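Question: does this match?
>
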Amino acid sequence: VQLVESGGGLAQPGGSLRLSCALSGATFSAYAMSWSRQAPGKGLEWVAGIYSDGSETVYSDSVKGRFTISRDNAKNTLYLQMNSLNPEDTAVYYCAALYGNHWSPDYGMDYRGKGTLVIVSS
């Protein structure tokens, strides 16, 4: 199973970015998916998760109301729309897959991508 993130880059404070994550080598719709991030010098922080059928989403308090996780099972792709970005959102963003329908930050992950760097700076 391979996960490849894309869409990272430089954004200004208050700006937006849309991350994508493509899964190959497995049936995408069989996996709950999530995004996590690691800021410089800090540990891994979960950001958002989505059930395999897209019926439920979960967000960390730090991004709730600003970020939106979504998926297109026909395209084997996960998304993270990030709005109202601030410098504290600067991090490497990782997508992860967990076999099964449900997702919770307590469940862990089966596969993770190599990440895409997001820098928020003026």
About this structure: DSSP finds no helices and eleven strands in the chain. The first strand starts at residue 2 and ends at 6. The mean pLDDT is 96.
